[in-house]
Amino acid sequence: MHDAIQWSKRGARSYDIAGHIKIRRGAYAHPEWWRGLPRYEQYRVRVEVASLSLKNPIFALESAAVFHGLPVFGEPRIHLYSLHAQRTCTRGDVTVHASCDPREVVTRAGVSVTSLLDTTVDLLRVLPLALGVAVLDAALRLGLSLDAVKHRLRTQASKRGRRQALNAVDLADPRSESVLESLSRVVIGALGFRPPELQVSFRLDEGTSRADFFWRDVSVVGEADGAVKYDARFGPEVQAIRNERKREVALLRVVRRVARWEWMDVWHPDRLERILTAAGVPRDRPADPHIDRLLRNKRTRHTIDQLHA
Questions:
Q1: Rounded-to-integer distance, Cα 94 and Cα 50, Å
Q2: Cα torsion for 170, 98, 63, 305, to the nearest 10°?
Q3: Helices (runs of H) and strands (runs of E) counted in the chain
Q4: Phi/psi at 221 (nearest 5 deg)?
Q5: What order do you get walking across the sheet with 27-29 strand by strand?
Q6: SS3 letters for 157-194?
Q7: In the prediction, which pLDDT does 304 show?
Q8: Distance CA 2, CA 20 (A)
Q9: Cβ atoms 57, 64 nearer than 8 A
Q10: Tell me, what's the pLDDT at 229?
Q11: Which pTM value belongs to this model?
Q12: Backbone angles phi, psi at 90, to 5 degrees
């Protein structure tokens, strides 16, 4: 566990943790370190703290997703699966889930969690469709079988969220390489635009370059700009931006238009609609009037500042 986290034992003196932020019972973080973490990283730390303080936990849903490397949306509770509980119950920041369907339990980083398959299926049942597709795309990139997901959904006794989960299965495509690309793909379809080709390669003077989306009939490239494209893992931010602009200029020698959008444009679909319309992307049908439901429900209504690429 990170050095910035302090543990408080019963009877500890108050000044030992003065100025620290309470993560959960008995665990406190240095405020500057904690506030510098994105919300999804704060959630990961809370789950890791819970793994050390709870007795023999089996993590499920978003809490298991942390250990599998799946995307996490919103700021969810700590979720546990119980082999023996008769009903789901909540105490403090922990929800213990009972189920009529058994789960496969595996070990990740020394912690018991529901399997990648069961974690993915459970999330597909409770997340809005677009976010569920993003989770499923990520799970497929990790090696999960789409047939296994279909079989699990069709053989489990629970019907909760089954139809929506199967809709996500129909829309899944592991070629989308980030959460933003997955969300974009679902929203583009819901807006009524013609489906794009994914990950199309172009031969440029500087070498080969792949585009996130391509509408070949109108020669329009679409690029979903998550912050990951400009962070330090690809070199200094300024240089990364210059490289991306140089790449766009090169692309415009071989395509008619490059349309770019960011997180907020997808989270507010009317913005993405305007961007694609201005770029000349053709529409096959009217937009879904209930498109907001694809992105938000009570579980994820505070998600936008916690998304990551």
A1: 9
A2: 70
A3: 11, 13
A4: -100, 140
A5: 5-7, 27-29, 21-24
A6: CCCCCHHHHHHHHHHCCCCCCCHHHHHHHHHHHHCCEC
A7: 57
A8: 14
A9: no
A10: 46
A11: 0.89
A12: -125, 135
User: pLDDT below 50 — which residues of the chain?
Assistant: 11-15, 228-235, 305-306, 308-309
What pLDDT, on the 0 to 100 scale, is given for residue 303? Answer: 64
Cα–Cα distances in Å, from 70 out to 25, 65, 287? 26, 5, 29
Q: Under a CB-based contact definition with an 8 Å cutoff, are residues 235 and 229 in contact?
A: no
Structure tokens at 245: 């602009």
Tokens standing for residue 167: 């809709």
Under 8 Å CB-to-CB from 287, ≥6 apart: which residues? 190, 191, 192, 269, 273
The span from the CA of 287 to the CA of 219, in Å, is 22
- Residue 206, pLDDT score: 78
CA 272, 278, 281, 285 torsion-angle sign: positive
Three-state secondary-structure class, residue 122? helix
Torsion of CA 162, 166, 172, 174, to 10 degrees: 70
Each as own residue / partner, the long-range contacts of residues 201-206 (CB below 8 Å, 24 or more positions apart, any chain) are 202/251, 202/254, 202/255, 203/254, 204/247, 204/250, 204/251, 204/253, 204/254, 205/250, 205/253, 206/246, 206/247, 206/250
Residue at token pair 């690029």: 223
User: Is 110 exposed, middle or buried, given 0-12, 13-18 or 19+ CB atoms closer than 10 A?
Assistant: exposed
In angstroms, the CA 165 to CA 156 distance is 12
Token look-up 């090696």 returns 143
